[in-house]
Design a protein that fits this description.
Layout: H1 2-16, H2 18-30, H3 35-56, H4 58-67, H5 88-93, H6 95-98, E1 108-112, E2 122-126, H7 132-141, E3 150-154, H8 161-171, E4 176-180, H9 186-198, E5 203-207, H10 208-220, E6 230-234, H11 240-250, E7 253-258, E8 267-269, E9 276-278, E10 283-288, E11 300-306, E12 317-323, E13 325-327, E14 338-339, E15 344-345, E16 350-351, E17 357-358, H12 360-363, E18 374-381, E19 387-393, H13 401-414, E20 421-425, E21 439-441
Parallel strand pairs: 3-4, 3-5, 5-6, 6-7, 18-21, 19-20
Antiparallel strand pairs: 1-2, 7-8, 8-9, 9-14, 10-11, 11-12, 12-15, 13-14, 16-17, 18-19
Length: 444
């Protein structure tokens, strides 16, 4: 049946989305490039994009002139550091000046971030490039087909009869089942889980929070899942605890993917490592320290450049996440450079009144050594700077007092005992429409 799915998938895309198939084939060829050739391609695309933005986009002309930068200064890769950093507030304040006036409306999409910092961000996307092909390419690494039957856990799912019918016809003969992550009740859970086996679903894609909720239900009810080959996790840091839970429940490997509404499919995990391969032929990533200087060692802020968006250029954009470079070598022999798993957003931090800062990349990993004890957690800082850490034990009968004390003392040491820290055992922790927020602060 999968062979038929693959044939129909290619026929449909060749007939109705020929450009996507063309881009997909090109992406597959890029995997055979040496790292040197890949780097040259990447820089050539960066230089072309910067020149275009400066000469055609009013925002970039003003932005670069004010910063004392001109595209003529971009001669080699070492000159990239001179390109100014694009901040979120700049996009928010200049959305219509960043939108390309020469791109037809039919090629413009609209995306809105979830607003994890409290301020949602609207951008335009360039529909001429099909970012989903980077996911298709990653499936090759995992010996899976994008035409295989799939289960999707998302905030946007077809709900009306007409919508469901259109979706069925669009993807036939591939079976697609949906679970709306915005609101999940027990009936929806049981129907979705039954459909995984009944429709021979081969892979799941979804928000970490939604996937975890399904996994917990499967584990609690001792349900056996034996059709899945892969779970594709996205939208939030994938902690060691959650990865273990997903692999146990779904009885398969988990592929971590890092992307955003602004720039999809930035980096994807291969089967040989928990680190993430940057899709370096279509997305450029920089990591910078607190002063904005490019670094190759240590953790820093991620800057991302969408090399394929001319409708709404995003160049050296501080996306709000943190990571670190790993290198370029991996047992899979894929030439794309590696970054560490993204552990926390810049905004995911706690503070003391006198300015002590505890980073989100640390806070999202505080229970990594206790994955057999703590099932789920959330760090919440109130406006008065006090911190409550909500935890859900794996087993209510298992003693967790020592774990709680260790975490509390460690965090108090981090904040120099300047603020109170309380750890509270709870039965549930709410997610944000299927997305997990590990750290919430009222101080920001």
């Amino acid at each position: 049946m999968l062979r038929i799915n693959n044939i129909v998938f290619l026929l449909k895309n060749n007939a109705f989305r020929r450009q996507a198939i063309k881009q997909y084939k090109k992406a597959l060829k890029n995997e055979s490039l040496s790292y040197k050739c890949l780097s040259e391609l990447n820089f050539k695309k960066r230089k072309k994009l910067v020149n275009y933005a400066y000469n055609n986009i009013s925002f970039y002309k003003k932005f670069y002139d004010t910063a004392g930068f001109n595209p003529d200064m971009l001669v080699s890769d070492k000159d990239w550091e001179m390109v100014p950093i694009l901040e979120k507030d700049m996009i928010r304040s200049n959305i219509y000046d960043i939108k390309n006036p020469f791109v037809l409306k039919k090629y413009l999409g609209v995306a809105t971030t979830g607003g994890s910092t409290g301020l949602p961000l609207k951008i335009y996307t360039d529909l001429r490039f099909h970012h989903e092909i980077l996911g298709w390419r990653a499936f090759e690494w995992w010996n899976l087909s994008p035409a295989a039957n799939v289960g999707i856990i998302h905030r946007r799912t077809p709900t009306t009869f007409i919508g469901k019918l259109k979706n069925r016809l669009l993807w036939w003969p591939t079976q697609r089942i949906y679970l709306n992550a915005s609101s999940i009740d027990e009936k929806q859970l049981t129907d979705f889980i039954k459909s995984i086996g009944r429709k021979k679903i081969r892979w799941l894609q979804g928000y970490v929070g939604g996937l975890e909720r399904v996994a917990e239900y499967i584990i609690i009810n001792n349900i056996k899942i034996d059709t899945l080959k892969l779970v594709w996790s996205t939208s939030a840091p994938l902690t060691k605890s959650i990865r273990n839970k997903l692999e146990k429940a779904f009885n398969c490997k988990v592929m971590n993917q890092y992307g955003s509404c602004e720039v999809p499919n930035i980096a994807i995990q291969c089967p040989h490592s928990h680190d993430l391969h940057v899709n370096y032929d279509y997305v450029h990533v920089d990591i910078v320290d607190d002063s904005g200087k490019l670094i190759r060692e240590g953790e820093g802020d991620i800057l991302v450049t969408n090399l394929e968006s001319y409708a709404f250029p995003i160049i050296k954009y501080r996306i709000g996440d943190r990571s670190a470079w790993v290198g370029t070598e991996c047992n899979c022999n894929i030439p794309f450079p590696l970054i560490r798993e993204v552990k926390g957003r810049i905004s995911d931090a706690i503070y003391t009144p006198d300015g002590i800062y505890v980073d989100g990349s640390y806070l999202t990993t505080i229970f990594d050594e206790y994955v057999d004890v703590i099932s789920k957690f959330q760090v919440y800082q109130k406006r008065d700077y006090s911190v409550i850490i909500y935890v859900i034990p794996y087993n209510n009968s298992f003693p967790i007092e020592d774990t709680i004390l260790n975490i509390k003392n460690t965090l108090l040491e981090k904040v120099h005992n300047k603020i109170s820290v309380i750890i509270q055992v709870v039965d549930t922790i709410a997610d944000d429409k299927g997305k997990i927020r590990y750290v919430i602060s009222e101080v920001l």
